[in-house]
Write a structure and sequence with these properties.
Layout (H helix, E strand, L loop, with lengths): L2 H11 L8 E4 L2 E3 L6 E5 L2 E5 L5 E6 L6 E5 L2 H4 L13 E2 H4 L15 H13 L6 H10 L4 H7 L23 H5 L8 E6 L13 H13 L4 E3 L6 E5 L39 E2 H18 L1 E3 L2 E7 L12 H11 L10 H14 L5 E9 L5 E10 H13 L3 E6 L5 E6 L3 H9 L5 H16 L6 H11 L7 H19 L12 H22 L7 H4 L1 H6 L1 H19 L4 H13 L13 H14 L16
Helix pairs in contact: 1-9, 4-5, 10-11, 11-12, 13-14, 13-15, 13-16, 15-16, 16-22, 17-20, 17-21, 17-22
């Protein structure tokens, strides 16, 4: 089933959400757009009385002007000097009948004439109603700018023309602060103010939505076969933009072979390639916009989206175990067992969440734009829900590792599972890597989760190299890189965070030796109140390349500390001797270490720094990292 079919069905499943405002981030609202509607940033609200008289006006503060407006096929994609008015709310040159009177000029056709002609046709149609006619009755008089000047929302020069920009020394009026260009770009929205009735704003009122949808559907247009539904209905070749955000001009479906000859004559008309009905195009694009705003994840301008047709909110495959556990608790707190730990807790939460879901397909979509005008679907898969959850569970519970994160309140939290794919990419290439590299790496990692493929070897090597070079990073960055490197390596090796004292693997044992040396010197430095990197950390990169030779250097540097601490480090000295004796003399060479040494290093260090009861008086107390 195609992505368009899934998006179309998603829209039809959530008709009750149409026009209903939702919030994902503080102060940012969104809605599932009605058919034949889009959004624009408005700058001025004009209130009109039911009798068609000017009542008042107000400049909309920055960030609060997002407005739902009706639109036609032509106006939704208008650009440049093309005159194609929106049906109701629009920019000043379109809605002001006195625009030329106050110094404005039109490049081509008179925009106001086209606008008022369309508004008259709508208001006088069988779908018109009182408040719509009130707006038309006011605007047809052609005195909008005059009223806005009288209300001190717009301002005139000495010669009586409109002051397009503010160059005065006095305090700048609000309108010139919310518009970056001249006031000819001011977008005006209209509302009907009544003292006798309590009405919704026109841009939030279902009566205005339905009136325009019915009116626009009644207009005669050519029908064609829709490739999505298989039915004949009104077709379109003009599809929506503003998919990722309000300023996005890229389209997923477009054709302009009338010039430039993109297809080199393969098709005479765009409709010969494929046709999609206007209704399907509108609903599918609006559903996609809504889903992105509701739950999409954006890296640079690349969108990662996972959804279901009936229950849209699903656990996202690129998130960490920690984030998904929080997601499950938010969604089904009363239905999940949160008392179990680690992998079992995640499995229990996942099972509890699955129980409340309807049977449906899981859609995974990834898209990005190579140019400002073309948006591409880079990855699309439709999964059986059961298979998706099985693969998600295996990724987060099979060979898990331990990670330390800060929660939203700044508290340090530890969880066992898998990291977010973006964190893997960032730690593999560094926090200063460009967004192009990070998003491309996340794209390469996604099949490791949903298709159960191996993590690419080059990414694993990058993580090992960076984890072996702590001197080049801040402490927090290295600690996070080390944890993620161990987690990724362990997906292949299948070991545990808990120290394996029985392992005789050469690389694992060398890693343990390095951790013991780091612990011993750190303890000595703490007593001397010094805060610097230990020799074990400083030589870590060299140690990974030539372990035998570098170990002799590290060990000789430890001797002054061993002599000074004496009996305080009897236990740690015995551990160094014990681990060293487990290495076969034939393996004590300068052969470079494999990535397994990081697992031995982390597990030994983790074991040393665990807070535990001191049973042997000679065993030193644990210290915090």
């Amino acid at each position: 089933m195609s992505v368009w079919q899934q998006l179309y069905e998603t829209y039809n499943e959530h008709l009750d959400e149409v026009g209903e405002l939702s919030t994902r981030w503080e102060g940012q609202t969104f809605t599932l757009l009605p058919v034949s509607h889009t959004t624009q940033t408005a700058h001025i609200t004009v209130h009109i009385t039911p009798e068609g008289e000017f009542h008042s006006a107000e400049v909309i503060p920055k960030g609060q002007g997002n407005t739902l407006i009706p639109c036609t096929e032509d106006s939704a994609g208008r650009a440049g000097s093309v005159v194609s008015p929106y049906p109701l709310h629009d920019k000043l040159p379109y809605v002001a009948g006195d625009y030329e009177k106050y110094g404005g000029s039109y490049k081509n056709d008179n925009a106001y004439s086209a606008y008022i002609r369309n508004l008259k046709e709508w208001s006088e149609s069988p779908f018109g109603f009182d408040r719509l006619k009130s707006i038309y009755d006011y605007l047809v008089r052609g005195c909008l700018i005059e009223d806005l000047v009288m209300a001190e929302k717009l301002f005139l020069n000495d010669d009586g023309t409109l002051k397009w920009t503010w160059d005065g020394k006095d305090d700048k009026p609000d309108i010139y602060s919310v518009i970056s260009s001249g006031v000819e770009g001011a977008f005006i929205r209209f509302n009907v103010h009544s003292v006798n009735e309590l009405n919704k704003e026109t841009w939030n009122d279902a009566q205005f939505y339905q009136s325009f949808i019915s009116y626009y559907e009644s207009k005669e247009r050519e029908s064609s076969l829709c490739f999505v539904t298989g039915n004949r209905s009104i077709g379109t070749t003009k599809h929506a933009n503003k998919i990722r955000n309000a300023g996005d001009k890229a389209k997923l479906i477009s054709s302009n072979d009338s010039n430039g000859f993109t297809f080199r004559g393969r098709f005479d008309k765009a409709t010969e390639a494929a046709t999609i009905s206007y209704e399907v195009s509108q609903k599918a694009h609006n559903a996609l916009k809504w889903l992105i705003l509701k739950q999409g994840i954006k890296i640079d301008q690349r969108i990662f989206l996972i959804w279901g047709v009936q229950e849209t909110r699903l656990p996202n495959a690129i998130e960490s175990t920690f984030s998904l556990s929080s997601f499950f608790q938010d969604e089904v707190t009363s239905k999940t067992d949160t008392n179990s730990e680690g992998a079992r807790a995640f499995s229990d939460s996942l099972l509890g969440y699955k129980r409340v879901l309807p049977r449906q397909k899981v859609n995974i979509l990834m898209m990005d734009a190579a140019t400002t005008g073309r948006l591409a679907i880079l990855y699309y898969r439709s999964f059986d829900q059961e298979h998706y959850f099985e693969r998600l569970e295996r990724w987060h519970t099979h060979n898990p590792w331990e990670y330390t994160y800060k929660d939203h309140e700044g508290n340090i939290r530890t969880f066992t599972g898998a990291p977010a794919l973006k964190d893997i990419a960032t730690m593999a290439y560094g926090t200063h890597a460009n967004d192009q590299l990070i998003k491309a790496t996340v794209e390469r990692l996604l099949p490791s989760v949903v298709d159960e493929r191996r993590i690419p070897d080059d990414i694993r090597r990058c993580l090992m190299q960076r984890a072996s070079n702590p001197v080049g990073m801040e402490k927090w960055e290295w600690e996070k890189t080390l944890q993620i490197a161990c987690g990724v390596i362990n997906k292949k090796e299948g070991m545990n965070v808990a120290l394996d004292r029985e392992s005789t693997d050469r690389d694992y044992l060398f890693g343990r030796l390095l951790a013991l040396a780091d612990y011993l010197e750190r303890k000595a430095l703490k007593e001397q109140r010094e805060n610097r990197a230990t020799n074990a950390i400083r030589y870590m990169n060299a140690f990974s390349q030539k372990p035998a030779r570098t170990w002799l250097t590290i060990q000789s540097a430890l001797q002054p500390y061993q002599a000074k601490l004496g009996g305080k480090i009897t236990y740690i000295n015995s551990q160094i001797d014990e681990v060293g004796s487990q290495i076969d003399p034939k393996d004590f060479t300068n052969k470079p270490l494999s990535e397994r040494y990081l697992l031995g290093f982390y597990s030994q260090r983790h074991d040393l720094y665990q807070k535990k009861e001191v049973v042997n008086p000679s065993e030193e107390e644990s210290v915090e990292v």
